[in-house]
Design brief:
Layout lengths: L1 H38 L7 H27 L5 H28 L1
């Protein structure tokens, strides 16, 4: 049925989202480790770039937790609750992308 197909698509999309969050976290950690190894210190981040970095790290952490929680518990949710969760996950995604743009611009 169409509803079952939508559930399968959302399930696969959630796994893709989780992999994306994990990749983003790993790339950030890799950047920090590379900077520390090559220069002996983490990059100096101040002002707007620091705010953007904090937002990006926060969104990455929250997005990872939300997506994992969704994957673990989604079968017990109402359609309305699932819809709200997808909206929240979208908000984390868009916020992280905007923060990354500011971080790149100011760093």
């Amino acid at each position: 049925s169409l509803s079952r197909q939508n559930q399968i698509v959302r399930y696969k999309l959630a796994w893709l989202m989780l992999l994306g969050w994990l990749a983003q976290g790993a790339s950030g950690i890799g950047f920090a480790l590379t900077s520390y190894t090559m220069k002996g210190a983490l990059p100096e981040v101040t002002g707007i770039a620091l705010g953007a970095l904090v937002l990006k790290v926060g969104c990455t952490f929250i997005g990872t937790v939300l997506t994992g929680f969704y994957l673990a518990t989604r079968l017990r949710w109402s359609a309305a609750r699932e819809h709200r969760m997808w909206q929240l996950m979208l908000l984390m995604t868009v916020s992280a992308i905007i923060a990354a743009a500011f971080l790149r611009w100011y760093l």
